[in-house]
Amino acid sequence: MSQIICTDLALGYDGKTILSGLNFSIEKGDYLCIVGENGSGKSTLMKTLLSLQEPISGKIEFSDGLEKAGIGYLPQQTVVQRDFPASVWEIVLSGCQGRCGLRPFYNKEEKELARKAMELMGITQFRKRCYRELSGGQQQRVLLARALCATQQILLLDEPVSGLDPKVTLEMYTLIEKLNKEDGITVIMISHDLTAALKYADKILHIGENVFFGTKDEYLSSSVGRMFTQMNGGDE
Predict the structure, then answer these.
(1) 197, 226, 196, 198: which is closest to 210 by C-alpha?
(2) How far apart are CA 98 and CA 143, in angstroms?
(3) From CA 121, how far away is CA 112, in angstroms rounded?
(4) What angle do CA 203, 204, 207 make, to 5 degrees?
(5) Segment 130-154, tens digit of pLDDT
(6) d(CA 51, CA 60)
(7) Where are the domains of the chain?
(8) CATH number of 1-71+185-236
């Protein structure tokens, strides 16, 4: 079942089109990596999927209930965000805000959801710790737990391993793969790490001067895929 369908999508900002003619669909359980040159529109596409900005033209269709339920989002961290003075529990639980509606408090079910998300991410022991005291990898786990509180359907991840050392990077990729393969959560991830994209994803969306959407194997055999992997040293 398609969770998101994008048809003849044109993206941009301030009235300027940076990407057009975009057609792709996301099926339940997909692991899609969005790749392409710097400035090609990857983050703009992510913001458009999150309804943070409108497409210039074309349309995005969501499956029933998905838009209302929300999409879990893990953005790139800024220096200010890394220094946020709140407890781990407060940050994870804040992922349930979209479920509260007009209710000014979290209920028992939402607190249990946050507890389970922390357990899944292996951060229960940090519950009372201040977020800014944690390492980069620990902070990313906290933000991923927060995203899981927003939805159990789709996770949008914008460079989730940026700035992490190789060991922690592998741990994050392993966690994301588990969420996809074992928990059935659809993953849409922007990545500059082409090797990782080709290792973990089952579908690739390449945007830029040339656009490609298809399976990993189709991408590797396409002209745009061959050229981009040669430029960036990616392999299976």
Answers:
(1) 226
(2) 16
(3) 14
(4) 155
(5) 999 999 899 999 999 999 998 878 9
(6) 10
(7) 1-71+185-236
(8) 3.40.50.300
